[in-house]
Amino acid sequence: MPDIEIERPGVIRSGRWAGQSIFVQDDRAATGGYLILIGADRQGEQAGDVWVEADKLEAAFNQADWAVDWEDS
Fold first, then answer.
1. Residue 2 resides in a domain
2. What is d(CA 46, CA 38) in angstroms, rounded to the nearest whole number?
3. Hey, how many other C-beta atoms are within 10 angstroms of the C-beta on 62?
4. What are the start-end ranges of the E strands in 1-73?
5. Is 3 within a domain?
6. Over its length of 73 residues, how does the chain's per-residue pLDDT go in tens digits?
7. Which domain, by its residues, includes 52?
């Protein structure tokens, strides 16, 4: 199971888009899922995004083979 932090910036250590910033935004109240912002700055802005259903977040991380270094809050 991948280590997934919500609403906490990180850097993709390995997998697809390695070296890019990442931010997982909880958007369940509005869309029922999560926005995964790639290339995001610390506020989750200036990024491309991928939307996934709430129950598919772990599968998305597994498919992209992401290992993430999450920043200290």
1. no
2. 9
3. 12
4. 10-14, 21-27, 33-38, 48-53, 67-70
5. no
6. 679 999 999 999 999 999 999 999 999 999 999 999 998 566 656 778 899 999 999 999 999 999 999 998 6
7. 10-66
What's the CA gap between 51 and 25, in Å, rounded? 9
How many domains would you assign to the chain? Answer: 1
DSSP-assigned letter for residue 42: T
Q: How many residues does the chain have?
A: 73
What's residue 62's pLDDT?
96
- Per DSSP, helices labelled H in the chain are 28-31, 57-64
Listed residue (49, 56, 53) closest to 33, CA to CA: 53
pLDDT (0 to 100) of residue 72:
87
- Does 73 map to a domain? no
Residue 1 covered by a domain: no
